[in-house]
Specification:
Elements lengths: L2 H46 L7 H23 L5 H17 L1 H16 L7 E4 L2 E8 L3 E5 L5 E5 H6 L3 E2 L5 E10 L5 H14 L10 E7 L4 E10 L3 H18 L20
Antiparallel strand pairs: 1-2, 1-5, 2-3, 3-4, 6-8, 7-8
Helix pairs in contact: 1-2, 6-7
Length: about 270
């Protein structure tokens, strides 16, 4: 092959592939600039939403990596390289990995959802199916709870993100419910006023809305009072337990009887003929 043939072949290659190469190079440069801009915007959005700090760089890197893979596939396609087989191989490998790690990936996805949407935070008291406790740590795969008796429970995030869960700390106020009994024959108005006085004297009980006191049931051995009061979420248990003790002591001091289960037995004399 002489010099003229080499020049002719190079000229043909440049004519045929030059525009493609220039176009692909421009797309690559512009695409990398756009990906950089989108990555910065995505990172800022995660920061504004107060996403967990350990999750922010991972999500930003994941999005950036996916966009770059799509850009490379686009550029190679512009150069005339057949990407169908390559994409099929990537898809098959991804499917195999996904099936092998289905449980782990489910927990990972659940952790991402929890950290993004924050149905609960560290310090919240939650009830998740068979387990309840205070959230001590939210990891990418698991949530760690600490029970009231100081037991650590590790729950996979996949189940938490796909099932019902009760968060007792989400709202700043909670309603405390009691059911107090009064013996038949005692003064109903005095009993009701006594309960109202004890509730008003407790500074932890909120007065908006007002404390609700009403006769809820005429039971077999007692008259039942339903009492409902609103308190700050942190005072819920202390108010509930303290009021039980106050009611018992005050009823005794003021001559109000705490009813006990009672059964009337009638003895019938046997007739003799």
């Amino acid at each position: 092959m002489n010099a003229q043939e080499i020049i002719d072949r190079l000229t043909l290659i440049i004519v045929n592939y030059g525009p493609r190469l220039v176009g692909a190079l421009l797309v690559l440069i512009v695409g990398l600039w756009i990906i950089k801009f989108l990555s910065k915007w995505f990172s800022g959005m995660l920061a504004r939403r107060n996403v967990d700090l350990s999750l922010q760089p991972f999500l930003a890197g994941l999005v950036s990596g996916l966009l770059k893979v799509l850009l490379v596939i686009t550029v190679l396609g512009m150069l005339g390289i057949q990407m169908t087989s390559f994409i099929a191989i990537i898809g098959a490998v991804g499917l195999a990995i996904g099936m092998a790690l289905s449980g782990t990936l489910q927990n990972f996805a659940g952790g991402v959802i929890i950290l993004l949407f924050k149905p609960y935070r560290v310090g919240d008291y939650i009830d998740a199916g068979e387990h309840s406790g205070t959230v001590r740590e939210i990891q990418i795969f698991n949530t760690i709870l600490k029970t009231v008796d100081n037991v650590t429970i590790i729950i996979p995030n996949g189940g938490l993100s796909n099932s019902s869960m009760t968060n007792y700390s989400l709202e700043p106020r909670r309603r405390v419910d009691w059911s107090f009994g009064m013996a038949y024959g005692d003064d109903l108005d005095k009993t009701k006023a006594t309960i109202k006085r004890l509730c008003d004297a407790d500074e932890r009980i909120l007065h908006d809305p007002e404390v609700f006191i009403a006769v809820s049931e005429l039971a077999d051995s007692s008259i039942k009072f339903a009492v409902r009061a609103w308190v700050s979420a942190g005072d819920y248990w202390s108010v509930k337990f303290d009021m039980n003790e106050k009611i018992y002591k005050t009823f005794n001091n003021e001559g109000l009887k705490m009813p006990l289960p009672r059964m009337d037995v009638h003895v019938m004399a046997e007739r003799t003929t």
